Amino acid sequence: MRSPAGHALAGGARVRRRGAFAGADPRRSAAPSGLHANGRRKALSCAAMVARKLPASECRKIVEPQSFRFSTTDEVAPLSAGIGSQERALAALAFGLDIRQPRFHVVVVGAPGTGRTFCARAAAKRIAASRPTPDDILLLPNPHRPSEPTVLSLPPGEGRPFVEAMEELHEKLVDALRGATEGERFKQARGKIQRRVNAEERRLEEQLKAAARELGLDLVRGEDEVQITAIDDATSAPNGEALVAVAGSVEEFEMRLATVQDEADVELRGVVKQLLSDGVKGCFQPVRARFEGRDDISAFLADVETVVSKEFRLLVDEARGEEGGATLPRGVVVPTLLTEHTPDSGAPVVEVPYPTLSALFGRTHAPPDSGFPPEPGFAVAGALHQAAGGFLILPAGALLKNEALYEQLKACLLAGKFIVPEHNPSYFRGTAEELLFPPIPIDVKVVLVTNPQLYQDLHDADPEFSQLFKVQARFETTISLDQALLTYPAFLAGFAHDRDLPPITADGVTALLFHGGRLAESQTKVSAQLGLIAEVATEAGYRAQRRGRKVVDGPEVHEALESARRRGSHFRDHVHEMLSDGTIRIDVTGRHIGQVNAISVLSDGPQTFGRPCRVTAVVYPGLEGPVNIAREVEMSGPLHSKGVLVLTGFLAARFAQHRPLSFGASLVFEQTYEPIEGDSASSSELYALVSALSGVPIRQELAVTGSIDQQGSIQPVGGINEKIEAFFDLCAAKGLTGEQGVLIPSANRDALMLRGDVVTAIEAGRFHVYEVSTVEEGIEIITGVPAGVAGADGRYPEGTVFHAADQRLERFYQAIADTMRGGTSADPRSMLRGR
Known about the structure:
Layout: E1 52-53, H1 87-98, E2 106-109, H2 116-128, E3 136-140, E4 150-154, H3 159-182, H4 184-214, E5 217-221, E6 226-230, H5 240-290, H6 295-318, E7 336-339, E8 349-351, H7 357-361, E9 363-364, E10 379-380, H8 383-386, E11 391-395, H9 396-399, H10 403-415, E12 428-429, E13 434-435, E14 445-450, H11 452-461, H12 463-468, E15 471-474, E16 478-480, H13 481-498, H14 506-520, E17 525-527, H15 530-546, H16 554-567, H17 570-580, E18 591-592, E19 595-604, E20 607-621, E21 625-628, H18 629-632, H19 638-655, E22 663-669, H20 682-694, E23 698-699, E24 702-704, E25 707-708, E26 714-715, H21 720-734, E27 741-745, H22 756-763, E28 768-772, H23 775-783, H24 801-821, H25 828-834
Parallel strand pairs: 2-14, 2-15, 8-11, 11-14, 19-24, 21-22, 24-27, 27-28
Antiparallel strand pairs: 1-28, 3-4, 3-7, 5-6, 9-10, 12-13, 16-17, 18-23, 19-20, 20-22, 25-26
Helix pairs in contact: 1-2, 3-4, 3-5, 4-5, 5-6, 13-14, 13-15, 14-16, 15-16, 20-23, 20-24, 24-25
């Protein structure tokens, strides 16, 4: 696994501990005879170990406002096509977005605020402008399988006119249906048939009455009954036989009349069908002519005409007499416009900052109880449909919050077509889960924006990720100062304009460049996380506007930075208060044996700050070597434990060439209550250990940071500015003596971007920063006594720290040997080797 970005420096990982306080009672002891500040006179044979005190001019880099050729950013052209200083990433983006091969999707890697999304968007829009505009996509009613609409692609800009034409066709068909049952032709045909039926009814009725008169009966036919009376008034009642005969005639009359009416109804339905057929042909003819030459549309219109004709016949046969009359569902005729594009607008660039299943893959909203085909507009396109033929920009972090979403996207990209998500109610309806969304071929370039750690995790955990995202565009976290002199003003010019903020003066830009250098921990580079710079510019602009000012200058930028620091420094101020009042015991004057001031870096959300802490060492005869107390109680991280183990290698190289190391030691960060991580305090631990072995006291007015390797080289660490400033703040609170300072690795000199008050104190000689490159250099400064260089016989000169330590180790060795020998005359070396 790779180390986090903050731990990238070899041996220089930051110690990140929240609330891990360190301190211990001073172990006051006099130096052994002959070892004192003027012990340098007794070590003339030692090679000179000289560390350098840094002048104030080397403790930070300030760009002068006169370096710029503008007064305010209003005079600077804003960035338009990406951040030019990210040349490698922009070149990779250009290649990945331009290549039109399957599975060459792009992953943009970078820290937030580096312009990764802005550049990806700008590059995609630039390339998309030269690409052909993709077709409009429509979902057509499918008469053969109504539950699965078919897909129709039309040239860009033609989708909506086609839908509108089909809407108009539907209206005409409804009018034709209404005209076939309510129009003048229908009324004339119905009147003619009705007159013929009435005439036939009168003829049959006359025949019935004549038959009744022959039987001496008078027959009067009403609406609901037939009255029969005798013609002869003298006869009181009709003859029974005559009544039976008349009843048979009446029944025959009614049967023949019903037959006449049925025949008339069939004739009328035939008339209606003919009228509808003529109307349907008349409705479809202009549409056919309009889209003549388009075989796919002609085939669709032929299918729709067949379906409409069949539907109309069913309506005529089944809907007669129903309340409300017959109607034609819109879904039979009108398609759904899924995507549309303006002609000559280029390829689409779609960005989804918060991807969800519906946002990416669309959804349907047909009610579960609705029939087929569904109404037009039943389907809503997702970003995957909208970006077809173009580019889709997605944030990996938000995408991976829903693993099913990520897997579904991969399935679509691997298949090259839209695949309906399984078991998702947005795409199915009813108990049988009838499919409404068809598979659609997709040609889209996906741009996945992620941070370095998540990219590495995806690369390691998912083989398919590397198969799909073959192009990596990595954005650097820093850019050179020379590049920044062009990038920062241009970025700030566009940012101030877009956010309606006052323009920024040249000294305001230099203040932001200094802040960028602090973020990058470099005098030659600045942070490429322009989002962090924009936050400061926003607050500075707000303050300028509140004061009615027309520009943002350097003091307002510094005020914004200080205000932001103060808002987030509750924990830092609390720690500083405890350091100042002695709750956390740190001495900034005097000398103590086996005790050194180290400096760690703590985090409180986005805020990081340094915190001095004391490392103490106690030595005794033994064989276990240095014991990391934090590790023993499981409070030490692997990097810190590694740093402690490196001490053994260094001590073996310096003191175990003629005998085994025969000592035990305990190392601890005092008053530590939370886990410790990082190896940036390994040099501090070594100084404490060597002091305990030699009996040479350490200057408490100095603090130390830096990791070591087994050869004794001091390696760079992170958080160097926060560490120096933390110790300076503590010394200032307790009183600057002019002797206080911090030892830093020489490799960290370029990282110094100290606050103005610290630089002022350095310039006045009230505080100091020393650069050291080896353990020996550091020992000489922190003890005032030369470390010592071994002679040809492997021994160290008298009057040196290493000589005193070597003598102490020899005594430990003899003590252990005497204990193990138990009075025998055996060689102690052989006994220790045997053990």
